């Protein structure tokens, strides 16, 4: 909840499975903040087709796509790695505030992947 705080003291001990089974890796975990990508529709629609293609191709993770009407759409939101290449391309195209990329500090995706066969 809002305005809550947690204080703790943590201790980490390095160990190997030879000494205890609790040190055997059984899963890996990761978390990723929810991206918030704002695309100014009016500015994006004013681009030429070549500029739209340049903007879509500027993203290394292919977050953007052109739809059937040649409009730029955010298709794969969770593939965003916050590299800001699309923001830089928008600035090069003279549309400084066309694309903004932020992370939602209140939402993240936590993934646990098992590494055992069971």
From TrEMBL:
Q: Which InterPro entries match?
A: RBP11-like, RNApol_insert_sf, Rpo3/RPB3_RNA_Pol_subunit
Q: Which residues form a coiled coil?
A: none
Keyword field: DNA-directed RNA polymerase, Transcription
Its GO CC terms are:
RNA polymerase II, core complex
UniProt-recorded Gene Ontology molecular function terms: DNA-directed RNA polymerase activity; protein dimerization activity
**What GO terms describe the biological role, i.e. biological process, of this protein?**
transcription by RNA polymerase II
| Record PANTHER family | DNA-DIRECTED RNA POLYMERASE, DNA-DIRECTED RNA POLYMERASE II SUBUNIT RPB3
Entry protein name: Uncharacterized protein
Q: Which species does the entry assign this protein to?
A: Strombidinopsis acuminata
């Amino acid at each position: 909840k809002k305005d809550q705080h947690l204080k703790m003291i943590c201790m980490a001990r390095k160990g190997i499975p030879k000494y205890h089974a609790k040190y055997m890796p059984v899963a890996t975990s990761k978390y990723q903040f929810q991206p918030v990508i704002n695309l100014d529709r009016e500015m994006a629609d004013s681009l030429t087709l070549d500029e739209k293609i340049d903007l879509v191709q500027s993203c290394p993770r292919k977050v953007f796509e052109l739809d059937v009407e040649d409009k730029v759409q955010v298709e794969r939101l969770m593939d965003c790695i916050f590299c800001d290449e699309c923001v830089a391309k928008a600035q090069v195209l003279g549309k400084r505030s066309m694309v903004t990329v932020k992370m939602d500090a209140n939402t993240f995706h936590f993934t646990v992947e098992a590494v055992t066969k069971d």
